[in-house]
Amino acid sequence: MSDSAELKIDGKTYNLPIIEGTENEKAFDIGGLRGETGVITIDPGYKNTGSTKSAITFLDGEKGILRYRGYSIEELAEKSSFLEVAYLLIYGELPTKEEFTQFEYDVRYHTLVHEDIKKILEGFPSNAHPMGVLSSLVTSLTAFYPESLDPNRSSEAVNLSIIRILAKMPTFAAWAYKNEIGHPVNYPDNNLDYCSNFLKMMFALPAAGYEIDPVVSGALDKLLILHADHEQNCSTSTVRIVGSSQASLYASLSAGINALWGPLHGGANSAVINMLENIRKDGGDTRKWMDKAKDKNDPFRLMGFGHRVYKNFDPRARIIKKAADDVLEKLGINDPVLDIAKGLEHVALNDDYFVERKLYPNVDFYSGIIYRALGIPVDMFTVMFALGRLPGWIAQWKEMRGNNEPIGRPRQVYVGENLRPYVDLNKR
Ligand code: CMC
User: Fold this and answer.
1) Atom 37, ligand 1: which residue's CA is nearest?
2) 241 near 297, Cβ under 8 Å?
3) Of the candidates 60, 428, 77, 381, which has an alpha carbon nearest to the alpha carbon of residue 230?
4) pTM of the model
5) Catalytic positions, please?
């Protein structure tokens, strides 16, 4: 392939340089196009627009490939741990044993949050959605660590902000849940690993302790690995674009949490379980719901199906489907919703509408079934996604800062009124 593309406007030819990634992905660079030609490109939803060059995550939607820093998601999910994957994403390489010991120690050391954060938490009504509480508590860190407001500090200072949020996010997540159910919060237990500590803060009751089940904490660890990064999706792009204004790490992450919340993104995992429950209550007729999803006059979509990038299969969904079977079997749970999910998947994979549009189950289709089996309530599912995605957001923010990327500022094609005279209020 040549190293430039030709674009012809009004008979004049312009050369656009072609850049190539390490996996041979190609893009032509339109950065100078407007200056030279006065023309911009338009691409609502950024369906065909690369916003950055990134060395963190590679995915090939046609082949169903997902890799973090060159390591396959299948291998990481099987052999690694969430904290190790977090290190890999943020610092670029798998840690040595010494590096990992230090990293794990640092994360455990910072799990406690300032007592005044409890007062902020108590200010929320108990029906507050835990995603809103989570994003607020993350932003509140800017008040407790005002030095974090400046993203141009030394790398040691930025690293401390990174460690702090990795350490405190499980505390915030568990506390958001405790607030919702009106229970006293549990403090972190630094004797425990990342997932066990979170589970204990979620489920321990004052009158009865909480026994860590390795099946439960192991399954959670795997789920978090599978969610850890996914290149330039809606929430990650939000983190990068907010950070590009030199807003602080915590402000950028909080924005990412809000972007994740919507049902077309991370909120899909709760929506899937609600949908499966509705199908079950409605008698379990999957074809009827399938027809609803295909009806263009009905806003209903099959939640957990389809993906902007994966057009063959979502490799995370494959791993999660198997993990759901394993977890339910190991915990001795028989969830009727799993049968509905499998039935729906079967019908969809053999339906022309879904086949033609390349709509397959995504990461969210089976994850909710595992969360349910682990005892996590439905409106906490997206919080779990945020917990998993945190290292990816941090890595992407750090990369964007390290590359000194310019402020994100798309253009538009204006389609409103042309200049018109103002009409006085009493003449209208
Ligand atoms: N159910 C029914 N029809 C669908 C669905 C669905 N879940 N997803 C896409 N379509 C149809 C859509 O109506 C359109 O049909 P047509 O060409 O006739 O107009 C076609 O498929 C293409 O859809 P699109 O909306 O242009 O595709 P997109 O790339 O903009 O959207 C998506 C991707 C994930 C937002 C979408 O597939 C969807 O809404 N899925 C359900 C929500 C969901 O599960 N989201 C989680 C995504 S994975 C987690 C994450 O990373 O966020």
Assistant:
1) 306
2) no
3) 60
4) 0.94
5) 307, 364
Banded pLDDT at 3 (limits 50, 70, 90): confident
- The full set of domains in the chain, from first to last, is 4-65 (2.20.28), 72-264+389-402 (1.10.580.10), 268-374 (1.10.230.10)
Q: What is the mean pLDDT of residues 395-399?
A: 98
CA distance 308 to 320: 19
Q: Per-residue pLDDT tens for 53-70?
A: 999 999 999 999 999 999
Rounded distance from Cα 186 to ligand 1 centre (Å): 39
CA of 369 to the centre of ligand 1 (A): 21
In this structure, the residues whose C-beta lies within 6 A of any atom of ligand 1 are 45, 230, 233, 264-266, 268, 293, 301-308, 357, 359, 362-364
**What is the dihedral sign for C-alpha 79, 84, 85, 89?**
negative
Residue 12 forms beta bridges with which residues?
9
Angle at 54 between CA 48 and CA 57, to 5 degrees: 90
**Count of Cβ atoms closer than 10 Å to residue 420 Cβ:** 6
Between the CA of 303 and the centroid of ligand 1 the distance, in Å, is: 9
> Which residue reads 């849940």 in tokens?
177
Q: How far is CA 32 from CA 15, 40, 42, 404, in A?
A: 10, 10, 15, 18
